[in-house]
Amino acid sequence: MSFWTNARRAVLAVSVLLALQAAALADVNTIRARVEALATADFAAKEAIVSELAAMGDATAVPALRAFGDGDLQLRKSDGKVVIAVRDGKLYRASDPITGEDLGEVDRKLLDKIRVNNNLRRAVRAAIGSLTLLSKDPGVRRQAAESVLKSRDPGAIDTLDEAIAAETVPAIRRLLEQAKAAAVLQTDRPEAEKLAAVRVIAERGDQEAKDILAAVAASAEGDVKTAAAKAIALIEQTLAMWAAVQNVWYGLSLGSVLLLAAIGLAITFGVMGVINMAHGEMVMIGAYVTFMVQELIRTSAPWLFDVSLVIALPLAFLTAGAVGVAIERGIIRWLYGRPLETLLATWGLSLILQQAVRSLFGPTNREVGAPSWMSGAFDLGGLTLTYGRVWIIVFAIAVFALLVVVLKRTAFGLQMRAVTQNRRMASSMGIRTTWVDALTFGLGSGVAGVAGVALSQIDNVSPNLGQSYIIDSFMVVVFGGVGNLWGTLVGALTLGVVNKFLEPYAGAVLGKILVLVFIILFIQKRPRGMFALKGRAVES
Amino acid sequence: MKAHFHTKLAAAAVAAGTLFGAHAVSAAETIKVGVLHSLSGTMAISETTLKDAMLMLIEQQNAKGGLLGKKLEPVVVDPASNWPLFAEKARELIAGQKVAAVFGCWTSVSRKSVLPVFEELNSILFYPVQYEGEESQRNVFYTGAAPNQQAIPAVDYLRDVEGVKRWVLAGTDYVYPRTTNKILEQYLKDSGVPAEDIMINYTPFGHSDWQTIVAEIKKFGSAGKKTAVVSTINGDANVPFYKELANQGIKAEDIPVVAFSVGEEELAGIDTGPLVGHLAAWNYFMSVDAPENAAFIKDWQAFTKNDKRVSNDPMEAHYIGFNMWVKAVEVAGTTDPDKVIDALIGVTVPNLTGGYSAMMPNHHITKPVLIGEIQDNGQFDVVWKTPGLVPGDAWSDFLPDSKPLIADWRKPMSCGNFNTATGKCGGKGS
Predict the structure, then answer these.
(1) Rounded distance, CA B420 to CA B403, Å?
(2) Of residues B127, B121, B114, B110, the one with CA closest to residue B50
(3) Chain B residue with Cα closest to A206
(4) Chain B partners of A468 at a C-beta cutoff of 8 Å?
(5) DSSP string of A461-494, one letter each residue
(6) Does residue A106 share a domain with residue A86?
(7) Is residue A421 domain-shared with residue A289, that is, in the same domain?
(8) Quick one: closest CA in A to B174, which residue?
(9) Pick from A28, A211, A273, A506: most CB atoms within 10 A?
């Protein structure tokens, strides 16, 4: 009895397995046929194929779809086979789009890329989302849920139900429910269900939620419309609050850039009193050093790329510092006490440096990449903070702190302050004032070079890089108070925040003008800036 | 490097010619062609390339035997991105060097500053860059795109293919973006877009802190309607703009950006990985699959001795303009400006996208309009193309003041701003 039952069960199991396998095989073949068809279809037909693949609900198609969306799905001209081809050095490595089997290396000329456009990329993202909702990897599931939330595809509702039932991670479960709600709102399901969906979306409370609800409010009627409108009003309140916080953050971020650009000038202009119009070019030199370091790393040691900026920092400091010392020894030391000549000479020098870099590196922008730890963003409440900006703020503060320590706690800092406060007295105390001058100028320039490393991450690396910062730098130093590092810090951050609060209301152009007017008025009232130096040093 | 060598060589030749008193002979044996592009200052980034392209075209023409049996001689001057200096250098080229034609300028303000000089000394200028239109001058030939050859088709593409309903018009604060956006705003309103679905934003030259504006675009885009950005942001400001877009995670699938001033050359300074799918509208892309283009790129990379050197749209404009000028001089049998200006109208030459471009009576040319998507290798993939050639329209049909104006430099009209409403030459109000 039991033997027969077992045998029958075994037979049954085997035949079911076989049938499943056959079905799977058929599926694989249809998927392959569909993928192959992508090669010859036009954009509209490609879109139809993608939605067909999504409707099949078989995750086998995911690698092919992903490659298609990324532009890696290519036609091998020799035999007309569709392959996934990824750049590998000079050649492309081809693999089968369904099985992933390695098909060897192919020359680029023998491949024809299967073209995609934005509509297709959107469709592919949605398709991959609905196909990977049941994936074992929680990271993939989260991404899938986010994609479906964006695509709001009603066709995915059944899969979403299945996924919600199976989900064990609460955060992903919530995301899946939101995705389902977004999809439900696109259908003509009963009002009660839609109202529940509006509630689920409203809980999200961010811009994405507002986007979804705004679409609902525009198209729906009756209770759903009012519920959506009410939810939008609530979300807008929270968003407005976050917007204020965001402005402060943007202001600090702009302030930190200003601080970096100005802090070297705070030494050369603030402490030494040299009007150095070539200051911006020191920043530019720092940026070009970064470019050269990255270029070297790219060609000879690619694995070092993530630390390229760390390597560039000391080099930029030394290069810009050396140029600074050379400028001081060659030009500025002959012009102490003659501000107008210094101004003209350094301005001419800045043009010479720009043109020199232009002749050496060419007039076009150079590409400086962002290391992985500086790219991307993360969400903090309603804020989106980009890693690059966070690091620049941290870096600016670190540079500032270091400079304060050098000035206040080292022998060199002491000599420097002595020389700037009373040159003759310092000299008679045995300080070699000329060397202190040169080194101070070198320090200021070196710090500007370090700033260039950071600015290469957010701005163009071109010969004109420095020009755009020179006015702002002077503004910060004068506003903060000449000869005072703390003044520079507070000045930079204040100007940054003020600028960013003005920008949304006045626009970028008018905002900048208003800031300038504000500074002019401020200087009328307090000619020595926010933190004026007091005492005898001022008189000289 | 080679280009510099050439400039020096040309300068040396001129100097030697003057020194040895062989001036008359050299003037008789060569036809001088002026190249008026900034080699220093802010615009050098874009214009140096065009200078090199001109030197290559002239060298190629000389290899083919020159023009009218004479060799062409390039005369390169550097207006240093300084607008008044453009006028001075133009005068030096025309009056001092007696060039037969000038190829140059970039930005409308530089063109406007040399206009009176070309009018006064009666010479010919080929202007190779897309511009805001609203101009047609007897001595100038506009080989770049007018707004209807770039901006309007781009907006059509976004609206019809990508289903965009909400628009951000973002630009640098100067004449080209302001005029283009005025035209686009009117065009969008005419096609039924309500005013609250259009956001216009201007930024100063070289703007580098885009955090607030990108956040605003994001906010504007979350109103339940498909949103796109139409960017007339110029030059250097683009790199930080695109970097900020990438950082804040705005993908082309969500909010596409279509740019009118971003080409292969501008993308050279950015990692384009995160920008895939953002768009540009031009009349030429380096990736266009045409035999003329392949040959041109091969020559260009050989000439610059750099196999990574990219080509771009204004270079194609110079290619077309130069060939048109050569053809017109051959037809006229002389380099006399009046005869060449008349002969240029109607001249048809191959462009680099596999078709032909013709010079129209309004001194603009016919071009195809291409929409390209940025790829991760810094190139563009053409995703859409106008079915035929689009003739450049000097006076926009979407600005009430310009609507009745037409330009036709053929006799008997010979007018750059003929008012069809009043039947008089002289622009609006006449």
Answers:
(1) 9
(2) B127
(3) B222
(4) 206, 208, 236
(5) BSTTTTHHHHHHHHHHHHHH-TT-HHHHHHHHHH
(6) yes
(7) yes
(8) A509
(9) A211
Bridge-based pairing of strands B390-391 and B366-367 is antiparallel
Asked if A77 has any chain B CB less than 8 Å from its own CB, the reply is: no
Residues A108 and A139 in one domain: no
Task: Measure CB to CB from residue A207 to each of B202, B219, B252 and give the nearest one.
Answer: B219
pLDDT in tens, A33-74: 888 888 888 888 999 999 888 888 888 888 999 999 988 899
Look up residue A491 and give its amino acid: G
pLDDT tens for each residue of A286-335: 999 999 999 999 999 888 999 999 999 999 999 999 999 999 999 998 99
Subunit contact B375:A507, Cβ cutoff 8 A: no
User: Using CA atoms, how far apart are residues B200 and B237, in angstroms rounded to an integer?
Assistant: 17
Place of tokens 């895939």: B276
Nearest to B162 among A115, A118, A364 (CB): A118
Q: How far is CA A400 from the centre of its chain?
A: 23
- Provide the domain limits for residue A261: 242-534
Q: Are residues A77 and A7 in the same domain?
A: yes
Q: Which residue from A213, A365, A508 is facing B268, i.e. has the nearest CB?
A: A365
Look at residue A416 and tell me if it is in a domain.
Answer: yes
Of the candidate CATH numbers 3.40.1280.10, 3.40.50.2300, 1.20.1250.20, 3.40.50.1000, the domain formed by B148-287+370-391 belongs to 3.40.50.2300
Domain with CATH 3.40.50.2300 in chain B: 2-144+289-365, 148-287+370-391
| Whether B37 contacts chain A with CB within 8 A | no
- Give me the residue label for tokens 């970064």: A290
What is the dotted CATH code of the domain comprising B2-144+289-365?
3.40.50.2300
CA distance A428 to B227: 71
How many domains, chain A?
A: 3
Residue at a domain's end among A92, A122, A152:
A122
Region B158-175: what's the mean pLDDT? 93
* Residues B299-309: tens digit of each pLDDT: 999 999 988 88
Q: Report yes or no: B268 at the A interface, CB cutoff 8 Å.
A: yes
A110 and A191 together in one domain = no
Residue of A nearest to B240 (CA): A459
Q: How far is CA A136 from the centre of its chain?
A: 30
Mean residue pLDDT of chain A comes to 87
Tokens of B245: 């877009």
